[in-house]
Amino acid sequence: xxxxxxxxxxxxxxxxxxxxxxxxxxxxxxxxxxxxxxxxxxxxxxxxxxxxxxxxxxxxxxxxxxxxxxxxxxxxxxxxxxxxxxxxxxxxxxxxxxxxxxxxxxxxxxxxxxxxxxxxxxxxxxxxxxxxxxxxxxxxxxxxxxxxxxxxxxxxxxxxxxxxxxxxxxxxxxxxxxxxxxxxxxxxxxxxxxxxxxxxxxxxxxxxxxxxxxxxxxxxxxxxxxxxxxxxxxxxxxxxxxxxxxxxxxxxxxxxxxxxxxxxxxxxxxxxxxxxxxxxxxxxxxxxxxxxxxxxxxxxxxxxxxxxxxxxxxxxxxxxxxxxxx
Length: 326
What we know:
By secondary structure, the chain is an alpha/beta fold. It has helices spanning 23-27, 30-37, 86-95, 127-139, 162-173, 250-272, 278-287, 296-299, 308-324; strands at residues 3-6, 10-15, 44-49, 63-68, 112-117, 124-126, 148-153, 155-156, 178-181, 205-210, 226-231, 235-239, 243-248, 289-290, 303-304.
């Protein structure tokens, strides 16, 4: 087995402070779902990436546990700090939460994060590290019996490795949605397929990227396994050295969906009054999408829009009132 890599990403800007709800979080309508979903409270999202700056002011309260599977830090299993920047950025989009005047909010600011460092400083890792990270996430139990509800992976490689597929399938079969970046080898043409694994596996939720004009990012891979799209261009989130950065890539779209699932789980499981299967959670996620008019190979089911069901409900009520009064 060769190496697996971070999905390449572009650093657009690094800044010392940030004080807003990032545009991506707003674009997927996360703030509208916060109250009903308790901001993702009670859910643990496993981030399989380059680690995380554990003392970042917007993240330190969110991290429940972690582990290092790489040879970085002399292979110290308990040091899952981020010596790349990518993992910290992903973590912020999922669950950044700030009680101070400065700082940003992620999609699910009350969710907890399990940080699994499987990629080293240069953004690459052994397939075995990734496989071990996925298996660890499936079997992990928190101090109060918490279990991982979502796995987020913004990494990929050109090889379809059977052992990697097996670990992904094990996670999905145990009820955990696995959210993966589509990859950034796109050529801007939906008719040509580009595949990165594990994103291209049918069992995962594969995420493509759009910009803030709701246009498919030209770098976003297109293929018949794309499930949905999320903002992935100039995305503001947390960064190493307690800073913030705007990054671009399907890597940045993926955590929007991982965070969205932490919200959807709470809303849907409250309605059904039971734990939902991975298939049911996927169905609940897809119910909250809006087509953008691109081929399925580019956008899948469309853009995640967390408030769309309430908006439909309000529309029907208005419609019914109108007819009742006539």
